[in-house]
């Protein structure tokens, strides 16, 4: 056990060293230019929009807490695609990656401050422009080990670095139940109209309620866990009406410090995803899928897409910045480009 844990620690630290080396390799002028542009873009949220921080929101198990950010839709947005009365219950949920945190937390960390333009607050405004007629929820990981590694323990079993151990659906437990409870409690605390009920069947889902799930980098482990739970959850009458409200899932350059399962490749599991009717989107960059030190990531991504297509799904896929060298800069920029 100890040798295995030592190897796991060494592997995670190797990846961290790779990340920090890439950070150092970027010239200060490149970083200043990127950060200035990204900050300028991310900070230009509509003055009518108000970003709300909801601290220690309980999940399905009351002691499992997550902090949330909520950005309400811009109801005066001229580019909104639907009438106002049709878009009051559409929601986007975002799961962030390593390093990312609340702005004030990142400002205190040497590695964090140089990526502060990708703080959770900034990302909320980016998503607000991408989905102007929806409520934006940013869920902060329950733990940030060494202020760097995002650990989504409340959604999926993970080690200290956030590498997941995916499990099948367990009734009255797991990622779907935790997400539903977070949204229900969050909506009540924010006094949203027609909130999602904490539990129940189809009659507990408010009219017009829909969900879009977005995972970036480490945050994709939550989406992966949901895919592993999907078969059992769809057969559970207490949670299946909630799952039917998920319209789209976006994987943005998924990655974690484990040695496998960066992308779901289990055919039986992916068959359930293909049959669910959820629209699947996979956006990647060379930083993750073209890294020779982690060649399995690219192979798994290809298998994920190919298997879904074999089962009749039509996942959208795009390799961003394919003509540019792999970089953390472009890894983060996929949040703006997807």
Automatic annotation (TrEMBL):
Do the record's keywords include Signal? yes
Q: Does the keyword Signal apply?
A: yes
What keywords are annotated for this sequence in UniProt?
A: Signal
- The signal peptide stretch is 1-25
Matching entries from InterPro entries are given as: C2orf69_mit
The record's GO CC annotations read:
mitochondrion
- Per the record, the domain of life is Eukaryota
What is the designated name of this protein? Chromosome 2 open reading frame 69
């Amino acid at each position: 056990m100890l040798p295995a844990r030592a190897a796991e620690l060494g592997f995670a630290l190797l990846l961290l060293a790779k990340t920090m080396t890439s950070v150092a390799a970027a010239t200060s002028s490149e970083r200043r230019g990127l950060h200035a542009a990204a900050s300028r873009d991310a900070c230009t949220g509509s003055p009518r929009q108000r970003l709300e921080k909801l601290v220690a929101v309980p999940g399905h198990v009351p002691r499992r807490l997550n902090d949330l950010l909520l950005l309400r839709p811009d109801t005066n947005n001229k580019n909104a695609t639907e009438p106002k009365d049709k878009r009051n219950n559409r929601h986007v949920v975002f799961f962030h990656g390593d390093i990312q945190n609340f702005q004030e937390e990142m400002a205190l960390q040497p590695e964090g401050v140089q990526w502060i333009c990708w703080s959770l607050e900034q990302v909320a405004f980016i998503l607000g422009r991408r989905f102007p007629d929806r409520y934006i929820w940013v869920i902060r990981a329950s733990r940030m080990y060494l202020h760097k590694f995002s650990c989504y323990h409340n959604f999926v079993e993970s080690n200290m670095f956030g590498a997941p151990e995916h499990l099948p659906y367990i009734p009255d437990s797991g990622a779907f139940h935790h997400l539903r409870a977070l949204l229900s409690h969050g909506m009540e605390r924010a006094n949203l109209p027609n909130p999602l009920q904490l539990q129940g069947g189809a009659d507990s889902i408010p009219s017009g309620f829909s969900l879009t799930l977005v995972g970036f980098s480490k945050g994709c482990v939550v989406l992966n866990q949901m895919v592993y739970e999907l078969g059992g959850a769809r057969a559970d009458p207490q949670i299946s009406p909630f799952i039917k409200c998920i319209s789209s899932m976006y994987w943005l350059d998924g990655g974690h410090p484990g040695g496998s399962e960066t992308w779901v490749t289990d055919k039986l599991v992916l068959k359930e995803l293909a049959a669910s009717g959820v629209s699947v989107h996979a956006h990647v960059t060379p930083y993750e899928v073209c890294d020779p030190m982690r060649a399995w990531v690219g192979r798994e991504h290809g298998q994920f897409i190919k298997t879904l297509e074999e089962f009749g799904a039509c996942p959208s896929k795009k390799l961003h910045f394919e003509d540019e060298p792999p970089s953390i800069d472009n890894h983060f920029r996929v949040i703006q480009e997807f």
